[in-house]
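Troubleshooting: if your tokenizer reports a length mismatch, compare your output against this known-good record of 287 residues.
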Amino acid sequence: MAVEKNTRNLESGIETDFRDKMSYGSYLALDELLSAQHPVSSPEHHDEMLFIIQHQTSELWLKLVLHELEAVRGALQRDDLRVAMKGIARIKHIQRSLTEQWSVLATLTPTEYAQFRGDLGSSSGFQSYQYRAVEFLLGNKNAGMLRVFANDPSATELLSRLLTQTSVYDEFLRLLGRRGFPVPESLLERDFSQAHVFNEALVRVFKSVYENPAEHWDLYEACEELVDLEDNFQLWRFRHMKTVLRTIGMKTGTGGSSGVGFLQRALELTFFPELFAVRTEITAPER
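Known-good structure output:
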């Protein structure tokens, strides 16, 4: 009986000569990308590669989140709510990928990490300027964070720009104002370098949206999309904190923070407080 080969032949039309053509590797700059992992432990510890790739891929995803958030903000400025919500839908999928990545890093045991943690010096995820940029775009402004990036001109330029510009939430509130909702003027024209803080009057605005969904369906849906965005972000923060706790316990962070305690306090920060507060106020519509 003839034995079949467990292979497939190349089809005649498949490109094999890339001397004068763009290839997959050249398009993605794979030579550069795949040579960007430089373990510093000596002798090199096996698990440091996991640690590096985990954080590098997170930074790539954060770059895409920033790309999408700036587009979302622009769409809101143009009153194009549908395009904005499409962008948020994509960001939500990216957030799920970022959160699930913590399960990979969680396979790094305390014993394994301890063998190369000292080689990391003062480097820390706290110094991720893209993460801070995402926070700024969502409304968690903090000018004090710029001091961390004083020696990085490009990071300082980006964060300084985003610090003084409107956030996604600011632009959503402005859109509501243009739709005729009584958004307080103090929220529409303010010092945007300051973090948004809870405003009781805005809760009443959202209450009118939530109690009349048929009349304000696109806004009603947009509010829930923003809630999803914050939920996902908080889940990412929580998984980060739990992974750190699992790996180093209550040790001080490599960047000088208190470690788990610092990450726990981050869970108290909120982007869209009124969208959560309104849930207490919503009543059943009349039948």
